[in-house]
Amino acid sequence: MVSYKDLGLVNTRDMFAKAVKGGYAIPAYNFNNMEQLQAIIMACVETKSPVILQVSKGARDYANMNILRNMARGATEYAHELGYDIPVVLHLDHGDSFETCKECIDNGFSSVMIDGSALPYDENVAVTKKVVDYAHKFDVTVEGELGVLAGVEDDVVAEKSHYTRPEEVIDFVSKTGVDSLAISIGTSHGAYKFTPEQCTRNSEGILVPPPLRFDILKEIEKKLPGFPIVLHGSSSVPQNFVKMINEHGGKLKDSVGIPEEQLREAAKSAVCKINIDSDGRLAMTGTIRRVLDEKPEAFDPRVYLKEARAALKEMYKHKNIDVLGSAGKA
Ligand code: G3H
Ligand code: 13P
Ligand code: ZN
Predict the structure, then answer these.
(1) Got the DSSP string for 29-78?
(2) Annotated catalytic sites, by residue?
(3) What is the DSSP string of 131-153?
(4) What's the rounded Cα separation, in Å, for the pair 91 and 54?
(5) How far is the CA of 116 from the centre of ligand 3 (A)?
(6) C-beta separation of 24 from 267 below 8 A
(7) How many whole angstroms from its chain centre is CA 298?
(8) Are the beta carbons of 29 and 277 closer than 8 angstroms?
(9) Closest Cα to atom 1, ligand 2: which residue?
């Protein structure tokens, strides 16, 4: 058994209480490799933001859980070396079973998500409660989910979203004892969220997707005052990186993400954790493609990874400062 407390990590409890009260959201950035992790830590130290480092099942398969856990420990030491001890959470993203969550809790994670959102309601309650009962013995916090997001998440593809039903949230939270609740109000996973056909154009000619269902969020907040709410699928699909990828040999289809203003509005509410993965992938791939195109003689990975890391860092800083409002809150 490895306790997250010995790795310099914290759980989400205090972080979320402060974020809900302060009207901002904690960034939850996925990482799979060293350059992503360095960029996240540099950005969060420079903006003095708390941070949640997320590890998906795909990340565990790609990089190995023990390596990722030790990278998270290294991240806290790196933050210290950079001159500012930000609170760092190591979180399992989309845990698919009690066993997966237990393995992470036993191996130094300070927070886990049990994603029973695709299960029948009673089964979701049962598995979530089982995870909470185990996690709380070790002061590990748990995120549950009600409602289904469209898009690709690990190996699961959901064609259609099902919005969270506000009438279920009180029962779910009281029966399971979860510390936070992920909800479905119109965000979706992956880089292909909305096609241009699903959008309208504003006066500046910019494509605007259908707005998030703030009415559902408000109803949920009314039923669970001050309870921490989580938004998955919150990448904004920055068009500069999509363009960069396609200008340098890539073939991405047109797609529109969640507008930053809507995320900013959500962050001011009880939404206190906002998950962003795809935007990091786009920034990294775009930059690597550009550098390799501009420097065809380059074969040292550090040449292009260094630039990718710098682009990622700038993007995360922008999110902390201008979108989530988490800058200065560490
Ligand atoms: O919600 C899913 C995350 O973006 C993780 O994706 O399983 O490909 O690492 P992944
Ligand atoms: P995006 O695909 O919008 O980045 O969402 C990531 C996510 O929800 C991770 O759990
Ligand atoms: Zn997700």
Answers:
(1) EE--SHHHHHHHHHHHHHTT--EEEEE-HHHHHHH-HHHHHHHHHHHHHH
(2) 93
(3) HHHHHHHTT-EEEEEESB-EEEE
(4) 5
(5) 12
(6) yes
(7) 33
(8) yes
(9) 233
Protein residues with CB under 6 Å of any ligand 1 atom: 30, 56-59, 93-94, 153-154, 189, 277
CA dihedral 158, 213, 13, 132 (to 10 degrees): -40
How do residues 259-317 score in pLDDT, each as one tens digit?
A: 999 999 999 999 999 999 999 999 999 999 999 999 999 999 999 999 999 999 999 99
With beta carbons less than 8 A apart as the criterion, state whether 140 and 11 touch. yes
Quote the CATH superfamily of domain 4-324.
Answer: Aldolase class I (3.20.20.70)
Q: Which two tokens stand for residue 205?
A: 């000619």
112: CB partners within 8 A, 6+ apart = 91, 92, 95, 101, 104, 105, 131, 135, 140, 141, 142, 143
Distance, in Å, from the CA atom of 96 to the CA atom of 129, rounded to the nearest integer, reads 14
Each residue's pLDDT tens digit, 137-157: 999 999 999 999 977 665 555
**Domain locations along the chain:** 4-324
- Maximum Cα–Cα distance for the chain, whole Å? 61
Total residue count of the chain as it appears in this document: 330
Q: Among 114, 275, 282, 284, which is best to mutate for testing ligand 2, by the most ligand atoms less than 8 A from CB?
A: 275
